[in-house]
Amino acid sequence: MEFSRIFMFNCCALLFCTALAYGQATSPPAPVAMSPTPAPAPAPAPAYVNLTSLLSVAGPFHTFLNYLESTKVIGTFQNQANNTDQGITIFVPKDSAFKGLKKPSLANLSDDQLKSLVLFHALPKFYSLADFSELSTKGPISTLAGGQYTLNITDDSGTVHLDSGWSKTKVTSAVLSTDPVAIYQVDKVLLPEAIFGTDIPPTPAPAPAPESSPAAAADSPSAESKGSDSSPESSPSTSSSQRILNLSIWNQLVLAVLAAGIVLFF
Question: Start and end of every FAS1 domain (predicted)?
Fold first, then answer.
């Protein structure tokens, strides 16, 4: 009897252990916790480009910068450079380019024409030097002056040539070429055909000198001096006439005395 109980207890224990082992072998593994993938950091905003500070220390570009400020085009350039996705490309003439500009003179332009000329030196998009090779195949390129103010650009073995239709120049160096702003130095001022291909208002002639009236001329010291100078000339002629008159009277008296003497003698 005792042996039966022990045998039954061992069989139950064996079945329980077998079931437990089978359950552990067939149960799915616990899911592994996944860490969240971090989102990519946003690209840093491009640094603000201060064109006034940049042009004041490079070049020298003082003359072009003065025109930018006097026409208030500097604000248009700054907005295009820092507040648009397209960026800006600027062709800046050195001071010596303006000194060599003798005819026609920019002083003859109206305010609107001068503003258009300054805007004509910029493209409303960023272009690196490598972009000009493809750009040269697209024909006239629009400038910030808009409308008929276009540029013809050609790339000759890496040298960029600009043709305004009235003047030609080339890029001599890159001052800045970092998206969104490109500034290139050119050796001549770009003169748009839309302005210089037409009649430019001539420089106003100086006002004529005021003419003095005859009455004022008569009262002037010069007139008095002329009158005083003429009086000595008239006095000698008067004295000569007086002498001739006196001489004729004496001659008549002498002749009368001689005649009277001859009568008395006979």
Answer: 48-190
Report field, pTM of the whole predicted structure over 0.90: no
| Domain residue ranges in the chain | 51-196
Dihedral (C-alpha) 216, 217, 219, 224: value to the nearest 10 degrees? 170
* Helix boundaries (H) for the chain: 2-26, 51-57, 62-70, 73-82, 95-99, 111-119, 132-135, 193-196, 214-219, 221-265
Q: What is the pLDDT of residues 15-51, one digit of tens each?
A: 665 655 555 555 555 555 566 666 666 655 567 899 9
Tokens of 83: 């507040």
Which CATH class for the 51-196 domain?
mainly beta
Residue 121, C-beta contacts closer than 8 angstroms, at least 6 positions apart: 64, 90, 91, 92, 93, 143, 190
